[in-house]
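Reopening this ticket.

The earlier resolution said the output was attached, but the attachment link was broken on my side. Pasting everything inline this time so it's all in one place.
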Amino acid sequence: MPVPHDPPRSRRSPERPRGGQDTTATAAVRPAHPSPHPPPAGPSSPPRRTPETAEPATPTAHAFTPAEVAAPYGPGAGEGVPEPAEAAAGCAVGRMAVAGVWVDVVTEDDVVRLVAAELAAGRGGRIVTPNVDICRLASREPELRRLVCSAELVVADGMPLVWASRLLGTPLPGRVTGADLIWSLSELAAARGWPVYVLGGPPGVAAKAAGELTACHPQLRVCGVDAPPYGFDATREGRDRVRRKVVAARPRIVFVGLGFPRQDLLIAELREELPGAWFLGCGAAIAFAAGAVPRAPGWMRRAGLEWAFRLVGEPGRLARRYLVDDLPFAARLLGDCLLRRLRGAPQAGEPSDALRT
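Inline output:
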């Protein structure tokens, strides 16, 4: 079934405060930006599709199951997991290798249109939003890399991934962040009457975020919120309690802000019980939506300086992650991509091993 063209969507500007009277701006729908140097066809290269002509794949398009994604919770972790290109063919509209993971060449509007088409057809999926920190963790643990690459949609949340794609000569159209998708997918859900569930954040934050989302989109139906205590996922009983609440609410879209990889491992389990729902692993997006954590101004986000804004606001929690762990990884990533470009190395057919440590 071809993906339908939705009319341009009105979106609340991220520059303006949430809540209150709805002041919207119109965002034009852009087609996916195709890579001028796609990986060669073959078992290591996923098929290319465009949102306008793509036939959404069925959930059986690949052999990867949510139980296999959740393997780190039990014995047999990593066994039987296919390579990323094979596993992630589901809803990909064009996929390239950046920072050791597969990333879909899509805009935010492409993501919304693809999710709308899949939900209308009764099919669910996962959206992973890798940034530098997620790519760094995935580079060290194969199970986490497979967890990222096997998602139906993988979008570049971090600006260094966009810069890396430009250095490789295959530029992504731009960032697609969980902090933006929580608003645009809520707008979609409000327009189609699809219930959403908000999961994550400190006590009260999920409920506040739900209130802000419904203030922006009065037709939005929030079927449940939950802020599980820290460490709930350390036991099967804790995970089961959270899962039962989500499953009982029967949402069509679920926003999960628990941080990587906790949110994505939980989503993988929930996918088994809610195969017709879409899940967005969105990290701090719930806290941003609630206003509990301020988001960087637009100019800082466009300049790739959102990390600096957050570092100033939460130095104790983020200094080591950003300065000790992520900054060297980002520098190595960009340096490696620049060297590849200068040497005229062709775009790899699968995510590079260069940054795995």
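Reporter confirms the inline version is readable. The radius of gyration is 19 Å. The longest strand covers residues 196-200.
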